[in-house]
Each structure stands twice: as structure tokens, then as C-alpha cells.
Amino acid sequence: MNRKRLVGRNFSFMWDGLIHLEDGSQWYLVDPARRHDVTWWDTGEAVEFVRCRGSIQLRNVLRDEIVSVVEAGQEDLKLAA
């Protein structure tokens, strides 16, 4: 079976619980208790995606820290007629 591989990217910044990567993608932390935080990660640090039991985790390669994430949905903007 041919599976799509999640490739490495660079961290950009985190704002209001939303992780922004340099490729333009946005991810929410899956941690309601906020035990994990990535505000100490620096812009440009290499991150990679890891699949673990059906969930997606974001790993900071330099710091060897892992947080569970879910992709932020793209909202459709519609113009009023």
C-alpha cells in the first residue's frame, strides 16, 4: 500500500494556541490541559511530522520535543450579495 509521507518543515511561530509553520500550514495543539507548549521554539527550527496510533505529532528535531497536533481547518469566506 502506498501511503503519503509527511515531510519535514520549519517552525515559524505560535499565536493563541495555533502553531504556524513556514510552509503556511497551521496546526492546533491537541492538549486541552495545556501541559505542552511550544512558545519556546525558535523561528526556523526544523520540525517533522510523526504518525503515532492514528494521530499526528509534531516533533522539534533540535530539541527532541513532541506535541500532538491537528490541522487547523480552512474557513470558507463568502461575500454577501
Please describe the topology of this protein.
Layout: E1 9-15, E2 18-21, E3 26-29, E4 46-52, E5 55-60, E6 65-71
Antiparallel strand pairs: 1-2, 1-4, 2-3, 3-6, 4-5, 5-6
What does this structure look like?
It is built from no helices and six strands. It has strands spanning 9-15, 18-21, 26-29, 46-52, 55-60, 65-71. Strands 1-2-3-6-5-4 form a six-stranded antiparallel beta barrel. Strand 5 (55-60) and strand 6 (65-71) form a beta hairpin. The mean pLDDT is 81.
Q: Give the fraction of residues assigned to helices.
A: under 10%
Q: What characteristic shape results from the CA principal axes?
A: globular
Report the sheet-strand fraction.
Answer: 35-45%
Mean pLDDT: 81
Spell the H/E element sequence: EEEEEE
The largest beta-sheet arranges its strands as 1-2-3-6-5-4
Oligomer: single chain
Overall radius of gyration: 14 Å
Low-confidence stretches: none
Quickly list its features.
81 residues; mainly beta; 0% helix; globular
